[in-house]
Amino acid sequence: xxxxxxxxxxxxxxxxxxxxxxxxxxxxxxxxxxxxxxxxxxxxxxxxxxxxxxxxxxxxxxxxxxxxxxxxxxxxxxxxxxxxxxxxxxxxxxxxxxxxxxxxxxxxxxxxxxxxxxxxxxxxxxxxxxxxxxxxxxxxxxxxxxxxxxxxxxxxxxxxxxxxxxxxxxxxxxxxxxxxxxxxxxxxxxxxxxxxxxxxxxxxxxxxxxxxxxxxxxxxxxxxxxxxxxxxxxxxxxxxxxxxxxxxxxxxxxxxxxxxxxxxxxxxxxxxxxxxxxxxxxxxxxxxxxxxxxxxxxxxxxxxxxxxxxxxxxxxxxxxxxxxxxxxxxxxxxxxxxxxxxxxx
Length: 345
Prior knowledge:
Strand content: 15-25%
Order of helices and strands: EHEEEHEHHHEEHEHHHHEEHEE
Structural class: alpha+beta
Shape: globular
Number of strands: 12
Radius of gyration: 20 Å
Mean pLDDT: 93
Distance between the termini: 13 Å
């Protein structure tokens, strides 16, 4: 038997960073995000050779271990191993021989939530294979604990919930890791207009978000006022942008995005750099109204808001740089998995 799963990556539209502890624990966080038609994928193939094989294309590694209760999290593919170890421990599963293959549509460090989405994706495959009792909330929370607590990787909470639920969501982050997901019913014409107005540009360089996120956490913990005040404004932008989105007020949407980016740059050093600033300068000169880096910053994807009639001109201007424009559409539905029995074609 073969099990397959996929989970959507996300665009953080507003409020990103307020979902990260300790800010969310002290002040509460608010995030507006939406999933897009780029995915993380996982395949689990049952085997009878007494081994657990892992092929992670994102980590560029292929590993083999004897079937056992726990896998060493060093030596590559830590996300897959973290899920395996937690599933065996929490659900009392007897490990079975299998081959696990994973990959993403976007490069690691792109700012689209690839790591967290992958954890959800692998967890969904195990849930489908082993009939684990995991709803969307339970799956997202478990994925968060695997990545942030078991593996000690820095980051927030929004990505896991976006991957599990899918669609447009307004998320509330409370103390004690409590999360409330409010799905938004956005009219089709508004989604069409937003897709026509947004442009996703990859800067050509991935980045590790840990250093930036760790600095934001230190600034919050130490009570640094510039960081905390900027984060308050970023959190408020999620409320304001939700209202603009539901009304279809695209000009206000763009204005909020522009203000949010200016506040985001105050959170930590390294959020912007000459490569990012050059892309902004080129895009704005060609007609972009606003932009923001997706994720923690420092590299990855930049999301630009462009009047649809100017979109082609902005694309051509950006393509003269070292990165590339990536087409996308918004998508409904979160992580899902399915089984294939018998021979495959």
